Amino acid sequence: MTDALSTVIIVVALLVAAYALVTTLRNRAMDAAHLIALGVLELLLVAQAVVGIVKLSGDEGPDGSVTFVGYLIGILLIPLAGAGWGLLERTRWGSAVIIVVGVAVAVMVVRLGQLWSGTGV
Amino acid sequence: MSEFERARPPGGGARADGGVRADAGARTGGASRRGTGGGPGRLLVAVYAVFALAAGARAGVQIATRFSDAPLAYALSAFAAAVYVLATVALARGGRTSFRVAVAACATELAGVLVVGSLSVADPDAFPDETVWSGFGRGYGFVPLVLPVVGLLWLRRTARSGGGPETGGGRPVGGGGE
User: Fold this and answer.
1) Quick check: B20 and A82 CB within 8 A?
2) Number of domains composing chain A
3) Where are the domains of chain B?
4) What is the pTM of this model?
5) What value of ipTM does the predicted structure carry?
6) Beta-carbon contacts of residue B4 (< 8 Å; ≥ 6 apart)
7) Which one of A27, A92, A103, A115 would you mutate to disrupt binding with B, by most B Cβ within 10 Å of its Cβ?
8) Which residues of A fall within a CB distance of 8 Å from B50?
9) Range of the domain at A16
10) Which member of A7, A9, A19, A115 has the lowest number of beta carbons within 10 Å of its beta carbon?
């Protein structure tokens, strides 16, 4: 796909995870900064989904495009779920869930890259 | 809802750094008052949810597009996904019935990952395509191997501290629901 966008998303996702790790260790619940960070991540993922689907409808793309589109769309749910959960659980464990969100998004973007280039299906 | 049930820490609610001070329940693990889905349990449920999603989506695609290639592996994928979904829901809900369901789901997972892991290492031809449990969850960073163990330990801990079957996990559950 687009390496630049993927790299940005991975970096942002890991930063979100790192920030959530800090707040978890400091025994703090999720706050506005988490929400903003998750929002930025979500916007980037929407951009990725648009770019990915546009590229797929052209000639580019992997053979197993069902899986690819599934990842592209499914990944959009993760920051939303994390935000909702962080708001429900007003303890450090709400922050901890956001660590999982960041790491999961980063892993899924790496996986998307693999699916796109056809290595490791 | 439940944040109002818990005691505020002395001088709590301070908003230094714009952060909200997590209350005392978090420091004690929150297990005693929140059941299996609260406190650290949230983290567990979150990881389970990610796996339920990953395994479910993978199984769905495998079965929809090429089931005849490796029926056993894909059926196993679907089964694994169903167990993850069950464990996620049961852990998240808490309560007596859910507690038992969660124990059963975690135990099934542990058995599954050990049996399928061993078989896939001993006889790779029987599993031509990867499942979540192949190679002891190698394709998923061995998380499928660790997760049920952590889940069972967590369930044991919540049961001990009174968040398990005895108290209904702090949440009223009719008992009939799965």
Assistant:
1) no
2) 1
3) 36-163
4) 0.73
5) 0.77
6) none
7) A92
8) 78, 100, 104
9) 3-117
10) A7
